[in-house]
Amino acid sequence: MGEPAGVGGEILLAAWLNRHEGGLPPFVAIDDPARLSALAAKLQLDVPLRKVSTGREAVAAFNGALPVAALDEPLTPAVVPGTPNVAHADFVMGSIEVATQWVFEGQASAIVTNPIQKQTLYEAGFRYPGHTEYLAALTGADGAPVMMLVSPQLRVVPVTIHLPLADVAAALTTSAIIHAGRITAAALKRDFLIRSPRLAVAALNPHAGEGGTLGTEEATVIAPAIAALKAEGIRVTGPHPADTLFHAHAREAADAVLCMYHDQALIPLKTLDFDNGVNLTLGLPLVRSSPDHGTALDIAGTGQARPDSLMAAMKLAAACAANRMLAGA
What we know:
By secondary structure, the protein is α/β, with parallel strands linked by helices. It folds into two domains: 1-143 and 283-329, Isopropylmalate Dehydrogenase (3-Layer(aba) Sandwich), CATH 3.40.718; 153-272, Isopropylmalate Dehydrogenase (3-Layer(aba) Sandwich). Helix content is 41%, strand content 15%.
């Protein structure tokens, strides 16, 4: 469901209307049917709904109606687009729990989550940094999950994520880079069927530290991690100056890029393909993706939001789930 006051509902409805676009798999909404019905009426979208309780029912209904696995209780109080309500936090997290249960029961092959409003969840007492950590706890993931951003042109993995830039250097550790590299290489094999993945590692400082004159993290933190990954048989290069790592020729040399902080990863990906970026969680025992954008509260309820990233997330989740089956994972 995601944040009900955001654009998640309307891009979900729009995705169903575009269901015949090549490669879009059947999907089921974990949501309040009354909320989605009211939203469709407001936006004048012809989206019939069908309540379902199994994956088989969802697939059978999909061509003629949007299948919805209803939450236990109607969403109250009424949703005001653009205005999150802390009272909805339990519904948001409940939808993730139901989705996880569906995958573990074999009713669905993957989870695609709409964007959440973290501040609202925190105000409700939510103790996890976000979707990813909550899913790790729900699924009993072995080790910290890793975030990969995926587009047709680029795959990037930020080693540190939601930190002030001033805190990045202190938070960056050799062990964190090694962990991200291991998880990324394993995911490229299992979820993308790349037999011998190639990782490029970005430097933290300009010019990769310029021999230590512009920073020492490349020598003291990043290089030891690269050496350790190489010793494990992973094909990895770096640290590379970030300003020369994302042009077309450089992108051809790696299957994924390990980046040292959030914007180092997301700026090139969103610049190359803003509408089709996908957030893929690595290191979980199930496939989980999400659109690579936020709740867009400023345009919620207006029908302006595009479903491209959500649809790309659905396609990628289906492909990764199928690849896991082929890989026997």
